[in-house]
Amino acid sequence: MISMDAGEALRLDSVRKVYGTADNPVTALDGVSLRLPTGTFTAIMGPSGSGKSTLLQCAAGLDRPTEGTVAIAGQPIPKGSEAAVTRFRRDRIGFVFQQFNLLPTLTALENVTLPLRLAGRKIDKKRCAGLLAQVGLGDRMNHRPAQLSGGQQQRVAIARALASSPALIFADEPTGALDTRSARDVLALLATAVRDHGQTVVMVTHDPAAAAYAHSVVFLADGRIVGELARPTADAVAEQMTRLTDAAARHAPVGV
Ligand SMILES: Nc1ncnc2c1ncn2[C@@H]1O[C@H](COP(=O)(O)OP(=O)(O)OP(=O)(O)O)[C@@H](O)[C@H]1O
């Protein structure tokens, strides 16, 4: 039974995710349990193939665990129909992807209002325009994605993720396609969502400098949590990653 703890933004209990067939199973997550308090910024790191994206997808209700449960603010993600999961997600979760995932035919403002439109919610255009202004795109509202730089497109994607005021924002390598300066802008925006609005951010990244914006880093290897680092610095994160990557190369267990 999952306790109703509203102070807990995200809780995973013994989550396993197995892809592939019975003959050829791939265990992407192998019993992951994790609790993240509301208002925290967490980075997820680990070698390639360690299960980071799968963890994010399962935590965000975009994919279903093979076993185990996920709860957002004390409410388990429904195990029923896709429509029920989508409804659950819309009210609680924002997602930022590496490749922005903006609709090319819509303007920046239309991209930001789209999730509200899809959810059948009242569209507060002024607020959405305000969000674009907040991310520094007040003068780009009517531009289409192709007319914006990568960093600007990602800022539109962040404004879109914030439009429904989600308690929880997941970001899968949000700075992966950006130059250093745009990456810093995007990370500062995520940090602001946490600091000023009490939102909770969970971000997958390969970049120790990006992870240093988080309050803590969770390290994955072979589908398991193998360590955590509080108040990370880029150097400390890089050192742990080197150990993990070396251990993965040797197929040896590691104690972080
Ligand atoms: N749809 C899928 N079907 C089969 N196997 C999958 C699928 N998605 C992921 N996997 C496998 O699950 C494991 C974990 O993948 P995942 O993408 O979560 O890792 P990751 O840590 O995000 O990797 P990267 O850093 O390279 O993006 C990998 O072995 C991958 O090949």
What does this structure look like?
- By secondary structure, this protein is of the alpha/beta class.
- The protein has one domain (8-250): Rossmann fold (3-Layer(aba) Sandwich), CATH 3.40.50.300.
- The chain is 36% helix and 26% strand.
- It has eight helices and ten strands.
- The chain has helices at 52-59, 82-92, 108-118, 125-134, 150-163, 180-197, 208-211, 234-250, and strands spanning 8-20, 25-37, 41-45, 67-72, 75-76, 93-96, 168-172, 200-204, 216-221, 224-230.
- The strands form two sheets. It has a six-stranded mixed β-sheet, sandwiched between helices. It has a four-stranded antiparallel β-sheet with strand order 2-1-4-5.
- Strand 9 and strand 10 (224-230) form a beta hairpin.
- Helix 3 crosses helix 4.
- The two termini are 31 Å apart.
- Bound molecules: adenosine-5'-triphosphate.
- Adenosine-5'-triphosphate (ATP) is lined by residues 19-20, 26, 28, 46, 48-54.
- It comes from Asanoa ishikariensis.
- This is Putative ABC transport system ATP-binding protein.
